[in-house]
């Protein structure tokens, strides 16, 4: 799967099928698209020299610290543990994971090693885990001996975003974590931390290979690598390749904002039934017909610049390949307000998990994004009072139930509020 911009470039080169790429020389793709072109040509020719490695789901993450000199300073030990929790929680949120088991480890100067763990509700919040670490350490450290090593381990990891606790969490604290994580990813992991962690610098790299396991360092490496790969936009400008029927110029390209929507397209049988129902209802009020909409299930709606579209497609593809096909059910009709008619689609665990994965992976600003909390299929909107009265009279007699499998989701966009949506890309569930 390629993005919209790569697709336009390939079509301008006369390429419509993979077979055409196979018949073209690799040097041509290297000259036009650089490393991206070579990679595309090798994939089209089924050439891949990478090592086949079995997939292993990460089950835990941990952090340990061995002191240069053994210590009995309890305050220092607790501060080191807090610093470890900060780093591990940052990794959890960056990798979109939650933990439900925390363990504390201490090693005395005589090399006696003791651990203690406890189960907790799934979380990735600093304040929750810090409180548990302190409790475990107070129970575990019951000998007046010097300590050589302390460590923290988070296990029973699952993918997903944090579920807000109405009694312990607050929006202000969660927004604070989000802002801190953004600063760490941008400027480095050690740029924002609690005051107790200032004097306790933990090792953030593997001494055997010199590689850092910090999410901030990994992102910096990826950005540094991408900086040396020419973008398609710069190649189009350099080569003067036509785009959307226009010759490339030296002018700075205009950034266009689109309204995007992630949807599930329903089967043809449901489409036909919805269309017939729309015709019947519109015939009741020919002078003031309601607004007809194509039958589909909306999952998310947001605003985004076109220059970020290719990255958006990659993120959605990353989510869908980890989710299998969805079994969905349509159960009769509902009216959420007095101005619309909908087919009711009850939420299930698989659909809820898909929404959570999209929310965590796309990381869209809340001010420009809306994730649906109802997944019903819109039939008609903008009812008049007269039509609404007639619909309410007929609605109890209308029954419709159907089960169907959803194998794909689609990304659509439109440039204006009243324009029709165009499909940008479709994603097959569970396909790598």
Question: What would the keywords be for this entry?
Answer:
single chain; 432 residues; alpha+beta; five-stranded antiparallel sheet; 13 helices; 25% strand
Task: Please tell me about this protein's structure.
There is one protein chain. This protein is of the alpha+beta class and 432 residues long. It has 13 helices and 16 strands.
Largest sheet: 5 strands, antiparallel
Protein structure class: alpha+beta
* β-strand number: 16
Our measurement of the CA-to-CA distance between the termini, rounded to an integer number of angstroms, reads: 10 Å
Low-confidence stretches: 205-212, 220-250
Helix content: 25-40%
Series of H and E elements: HHHHEHEEHEEHHHEHEEHEEEHEEHEEE
Give a short overview:
This protein has 432 residues and is of the alpha+beta class. The protein contains 13 helices and 16 strands. The longest helix is centred in the N-terminal third of the chain and has 21 residues.
């Amino acid at each position: 799967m390629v993005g919209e911009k790569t697709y336009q470039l390939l079509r301008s080169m006369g390429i419509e099928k993979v077979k055409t790429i196979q018949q073209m020389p690799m040097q041509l793709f290297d000259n036009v698209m650089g490393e991206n072109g070579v990679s595309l040509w090798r994939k089209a020719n089924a050439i891949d020299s990478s090592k086949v490695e079995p997939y292993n789901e990460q089950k835990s993450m941990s952090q340990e610290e061995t002191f240069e000199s053994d210590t009995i300073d309890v305050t220092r030990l607790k501060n080191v543990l807090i610093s470890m929790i900060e780093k591990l929680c940052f990794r959890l949120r960056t990798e979109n994971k939650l933990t439900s088991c925390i363990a504390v480890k201490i090693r005395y100067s005589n090399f006696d090693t003791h651990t203690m763990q406890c189960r907790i509700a799934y979380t990735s919040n600093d304040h929750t885990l810090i409180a548990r670490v302190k409790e475990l350490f107070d129970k575990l450290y019951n000998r007046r001996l010097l300590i050589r090593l302390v460590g923290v381990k988070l296990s029973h990891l699952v993918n997903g975003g944090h579920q807000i606790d109405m009694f312990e969490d607050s929006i202000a604290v969660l927004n604070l974590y989000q802002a801190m994580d953004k600063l760490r990813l941008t400027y480095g992991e050690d740029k924002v931390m609690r005051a107790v962690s200032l004097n306790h610098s933990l090792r953030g790299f593997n001494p055997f290979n010199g590689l850092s396991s910090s999410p901030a360092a990994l992102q910096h490496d990826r950005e540094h690598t991408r900086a040396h790969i020419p973008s398609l936009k710069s190649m189009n400008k350099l080569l003067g390749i036509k785009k959307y029927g226009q010759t490339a110029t030296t002018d700075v390209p205009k950034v266009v904002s689109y309204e995007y929507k992630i949807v599930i397209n329903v089967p043809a049988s449901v489409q036909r039934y919805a269309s017939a129902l729309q015709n019947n209802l519109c015939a009741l009020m020919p002078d003031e017909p309601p607004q007809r909409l194509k039958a589909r299930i909306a999952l998310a709606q947001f605003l985004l610049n076109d220059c970020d579209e290719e990255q958006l497609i990659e993120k959605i593809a990353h989510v869908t390949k980890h989710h299998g096909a969805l079994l969905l059910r349509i159960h009769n009709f509902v009216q959420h307000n007095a101005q619309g008619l909908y087919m009711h689609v009850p939420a299930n665990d698989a659909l809820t998990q898909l929404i959570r994965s999209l929310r965590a992976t796309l990381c869209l600003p809340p001010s420009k994004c809306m994730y649906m909390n109802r997944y019903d299929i819109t039939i008609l909107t903008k009812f008049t009072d007269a039509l609404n009265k007639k619909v309410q009279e007929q609605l109890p007699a209308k029954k419709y139930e159907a089960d169907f499998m959803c194998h794909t989701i689609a990304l659509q966009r439109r440039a204006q509020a009243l324009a029709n949506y165009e499909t940008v890309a479709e994603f097959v569930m569970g396909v790598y």
